[in-house]
Amino acid sequence: MTKIPLDQKHPLSPSWRELKLLDLQSELERSGEERGDIAYTSPLWARFSLPHRNPGDVPRWEAKNDGVSLIVRPGEKRNSDGSWTNAGYPFGVIPRLALTYIATEAVRTREPVIHMGDSQREFMTRLGLSHGSADRRRVRSQVEALAVCTINLDRFSSTDSGWEYTDRRLPIANGHRLWVTNDDDDTAMRWGSKFFLSEEFFASIITASMPVYLDDLRALGGSSLRHDIYVWLTYRLNSLEKPTQISWAQLHAQFGASFTRLRDFKAKFLEALGDVLKVYEKARVRVADKTFILMPSPTHVRPRRAITE
Fold first, then answer.
1. CA 34 to CA 226: how far, in whole Å?
2. Least enclosed by CB within 10 Å: which of 38, 159, 216, 267?
3. What DSSP state is assigned to residue 174?
C-alpha cells in the first residue's frame, strides 16, 4: 500500500502526489468505472470544512454555508503527567482522513463504537499514511483534538422587528480511548483505541452516508483543500439537475475561512480543483469571474463495497 507522506517536496522531480495522480489516471483509462475500494463520509463535510491551518489561540473557528455556521471549539486533553491542557483545533488533512475512516467503519459494522486499531501504526497504515516519528506525533495530536473538540451548527437571522438564533450541538464522540505510549515506538505498548460516536453523529452517518473512492483520496495526497473540493463535488454533482451558480464569496465562507483574502482563496481553490478534476474526470464545472458554475454530471461513485482492510 502506498503511504501518503505528510510533508514531501523535491524541487527537481515530480512529487509523490503528481506521480500518484498519473498512475490513477492510467488506471482509469485501463479499467473504466470498476475500480478501487469505496469509503464513506458524512454529507456534513460536503457542506462545511474544518480548518485548513491551525487557527491558533482563538476561542472558536467558523465556516458558513447558506445561513448556517459550523462552529468548532477546542477541548482539553490529559498530559502524561496527569495535568490538563488545551488540545487545539483539528486542522488539515489528518482529521479529514480520520473522519472518513470513522464513517466507513460505522457503515461497515453498523456500530457506534469505532475500533481505531491496536496501535497508532496500525491506524496510520489503514489510512495509507506514512508513520515516521514526527508523523505519528502529528496524527496523535490531531486525532485527540478531533475527539475532544465541540462542534455546533448555528443559524442566525435578523429582521427589522428582531432576530432569531438556533443552535444544535453535534458532538462527534461522547467518549474515546486513544493510544498510550511512553516513546515514539508504539510497539512498546499496545492499547486498542476506540471512538464512541455520539448518537447524533452516528445517526447522521448511517442515514445519509456518501461514498467516495479511497484511491482518489490517497492520490489527492496531503491537501485538505483538495480533499474538501473532491468530497463537495462528489456530493453536489450526484443529483444535480440544472446548472447552478455559486459565488466565490459563498465558496470562501464555506471552504476558505482559513484564508483572509478572497483572491488568495480563489487562486488556491483553482489550483486544487485542477488536481481534483484529474480523478473526477467527468465532473462538469465552469469558472467565471464572479461565480463558479456546477453543471449536471455523471455520478462519480456508485456504492459497491466499503474498505475492509
1. 23
2. 159
3. E
Inform me whether the pLDDT recorded for 150 exceeds 80. Answer: yes
What's the pLDDT band for 297 if we cut at 50, 70, 90?
A: very high
Fill in the DSSP letter of residue 32: T
CB 20 within 8 A of CB 209: no
Amino acid in the structure at residue 190: R
Q: How far apart are the first and last CA of the chain?
A: 11
Q: Which long-range contacts (CB under 8 A, 24 or more apart) does 6-14 make?
A: 6/93, 6/94, 6/129, 6/130, 6/135, 6/138, 6/222, 7/222
Q: C-alpha angle with apex 36: 123 to 21, nearest 5 degrees?
A: 90
pLDDT 10s digits, 64-82: 998 899 999 999 988 878 8
**Cell 488545551 appears where?**
86
